[in-house]
Amino acid sequence: MTHLKTGLTIASHTGPAVLAFAELEVLKEQGVSPEAFIWVHAQNEKDVQNHIRAAKMGAWVSFDGLSDDNVMEYVTLLVKMKNEKLLSNVLISHDAGWYDPAKPDGGEFRGYTTVFTKLIPELKKQGFSDKEINQLIVKNPAEAFGVGVKKNKL
Question: Which contiguous run of DSSP H or E holds residue 12?
Fold first, then answer.
């Protein structure tokens, strides 16, 4: 209802596909297009066919939690989405930072550079063009978070 009134994007920290598809069904029933929905933490779903299915529906598939330790997992996901011609529905994120007031100095801080220092160079090794990388880090976020009502086409 909020999306239909404001045009704001719906980013749901979902994880498993079964929940993402249940959310997409509710949105459809409410007249909201999947294009207004970001499936956050989609990398937690291990069946890439579900990522493909959601993207083909028009939803944003967000692979976040990128770190120095899992770059190749993300490269594999992105190659699969590229092969399906679905990069235009993918978001990537570190989901990093964090401050824990219970720990000295806020705990261990994880920075925001892995996309640039590790992921992009690896994507280039895998044959990603500058245009495809721009799609992932500039164009897609601008489109995903752009304000505008997206009604479901019945």
Answer: strand 10-13
Closest Cα to residue 119, out of 63, 72, 64? 72
DSSP states along 70-123? SHHHHHHHHHHHHHTT-GGGEEE----B---TTSGGGS--B-S-HIIIIIHHHH
- 10 Å CB burial of residue 15 (0-12, 13-18, 19+) is middle
Other beta carbons within 10 Å of 4: 16
Q: How many residues does the chain have?
A: 154
Model confidence over 42-74: pLDDT tens digits? 999 999 999 999 999 999 999 999 999 999 999
SS3 61: strand
For the segment 102-145, what is each residue's pLDDT rounded down to a tens digit?
999 889 888 899 999 999 999 999 999 999 999 999 999 999 99
Quote the Cα angle for 92-119-143, to 5°: 30
